[in-house]
Design a protein that fits this description.
The protein is mainly beta. Helices cover 14% and strands 46% of the residues. The chain is built from seven helices and 38 strands.
Length: 529
């Protein structure tokens, strides 16, 4: 009885209690049809018109156009305010102007063409059309720092509460960037198809759109921080099969098939259907349910097939996380720590090699978010993907520098638990580009427990890229092409170290030949169903 109560408490603690919602605009303001970047200052919207070489001024409350002033030069794009002075770009020049448009002074920037300006109080950040972001002196344009940017061409730039913000024209995305190291922290969907500028103020995000001729206002997604996008309904069949070619019998076969549940990225449309009905539904020490089958005396030329049919609505999910709002490690529930900081044979967290690697990765870092990011970067830098069969222990994988998605997971879990951050793995079947698809490979990744947010997905293999945007997709992002079947913290009493399926085959002659197949079959659900 105590074990059942413990499992119920553990499951309730493991699931973050948050609302999941679409991120939507709450207001739009019509603007110039040829909008460049903009800023908000003294209750007014100041927006560059790149055709008329003007700056239009709108009232922020009612959206009325009040006036226009000439912009300096013939290639304006961005506008901002530094110490109560308007600052406007002209090609690669930065012009300080009065409210009448007259130039006070000009400095040159290192950008080939300026697509965004953002002061941080002391310096001016400049976005180049090619994606680089420069921090320069507002006195003479001296470069203070250079960031790679988010990857690809960007439009607009803003600075708010210690972070830079910009947009991607081609990906229709918004990026929140850490200015110290250039890492992309959050990726949000743009409210329009052609973002041209961005401004952040008072927990609101303002985005102008060149195609929609509008300025959109969106709230910071701090309460409903898991954003759902682009849902689809699908049918997935988990199929397990054993075929005995003989010459002898197979005496005893135990089969376990993981049972999925509702999660932020997935909603089961109905209870899974099992063919045939399982002997029993079991739950392991992590609360993971499995369908259990027991077959005996499988004859030569006989096979057994087991199916689990799942209908689900899958969504891409995006976790909006503010690192400074992540709480301290000592605020993590005790039961979470007890279960997901345990050592195990695959992890070896006390191994000297692991202990040294943790110190090299995080140094004196205490913030759980940045611990997760630094270890993510460390693993991505030290390991290259290689799928060759078998799952070795974390220290060995880290030493050789190559591993599968499961081995990436074991290394990451080992390092994170050694650093004191609860970590677990999830296993899935995946759809790789076609709605009708057979997946024989599957995929496993990580979830880390960030106090104040709960369990957050991390995929170390995705971070293996020099592009900041690509690295950002490794934490807090999951596309709709995965159905999670398994959540585990280590060696499961039923699934062992596997996920989706597991089998235990015993009592057969050494000359008996048999074959086991496991795969996920994806089928789209039509609107008529």
């Amino acid at each position: 009885m105590k074990k059942v109560i413990f499992m119920i408490v553990l499951i309730s603690l493991a699931l973050p209690i948050v609302l999941h919602a679409e991120w939507k605009t709450y207001r739009s303001i019509p603007t110039t049809p040829y909008s460049g970047d903009f800023t908000v200052w003294k209750g007014k919207i100041w927006q560059v018109d790149i055709i008329s070489d003007s700056i239009f001024v709108y009232d922020l409350k009612n959206g009325d156009k009040e006036k226009s002033i000439p912009s300096p030069g013939y290639s304006p794009y961005s506008v901002t305010v530094l110490k109560n002075t308007l600052v406007v770009s002209n090609d690669n020049e930065i012009c300080f102007i009065g409210k009448d448009g007259n130039i006070i002074r000009t400095i040159y920037s290192p950008a080939s063409f300026i697509k965004g300006l953002a002061p941080d109080g002391d310096y001016i950040w400049v976005a180049d059309k090619n994606g680089e972001i420069y921090c320069i002196s507002s006195n003479d344009g001296t470069i203070i720092k250079t960031l790679e940017g988010s990857g690809g061409r960007i439009n607009g730039l803003a600075y708010s509460k210690g972070y830079l913000w910009t947009t991607s024209r081609y990906r229709d995305e918004l990026y929140m960037i850490e200015p110290e190291n250039g890492e992309v922290i959050n990726i949000l969907p743009s409210p329009g198809p052609y973002p041209s500028g961005i401004f952040v103020m008072d927990n609101n995000i303002y985005v102008s759109d060149f195609e929609k001729d509008s300025l959109f206002l969106l709230p910071f997604p701090t309460r409903d921080f898991i954003i759902k996008e682009d849902s689809m309904k699908t049918r997935i069949i988990l199929q397990w099969e054993i075929a005995n070619s003989g010459p002898g019998n197979i005496g005893d076969v135990k089969v376990y098939i993981a049972i999925p549940r509702d999660l932020p990225n997935q909603h089961l449309l109905k209870e899974p259907e099992f063919i045939p009905e399982p002997d029993e539904i079991l739950a392991d020490q992590y609360g993971q349910k499995v369908a259990y089958y027991h077959f005996q005396d499988i004859q030569p030329m006989q096979n057994q097939i087991v199916k689990e049919v799942i209908e689900a609505q899958l969504s891409s999910v995006n976790y909006f996380i503010l690192p400074d709002r992540v709480k301290n490690l000592n605020e993590i529930p005790k039961e979470i720590k007890k279960t997901y900081l345990r050592d195990s044979e695959k992890f070896r967290i006390k191994d000297p090699f692991i202990q040294k690697a943790v110190q090299n990765a995080i140094g004196k870092e205490k913030n759980p978010y940045w611990i997760a990011r630094k270890i993510l970067n460390y693993v991505a830098d030290k390991i290259d993907y290689e799928l060759k069969g078998g799952w070795d222990i974390a220290p060995e994988v880290l030493k050789r520098g190559k591993g599968s998605c499961s081995e990436y997971a074991f290394v990451y879990i080992s390092l994170m638990r050694a650093a004191g951050v609860p970590t677990r793995y999830v296993g899935s079947v995946s759809e790789r580009g076609d709605r009708a698809y057979i997946d024989p490979v599957f995929h496993r990744w990580i979830e880390v427990y960030l106090p104040g947010y709960g369990w957050v997905p991390v995929d170390p293999g995705v971070a293996d890229s020099p592009e900041p945007r690509r690295k950002a997709l490794a934490i807090g992002h999951r596309p709709k092409s995965y159905l999670i079947t398994t959540i585990g913290g280590g060696d499961s009493e039923y699934l062992d170290w596997s996920y989706n399926f597991n089998e235990k085959i015993r009592n057969y002659n050494a000359k008996t030949n048999f074959n086991v197949e496991r795969f996920g079959i994806w089928e789209p659900i039509s609107h008529k169903e």
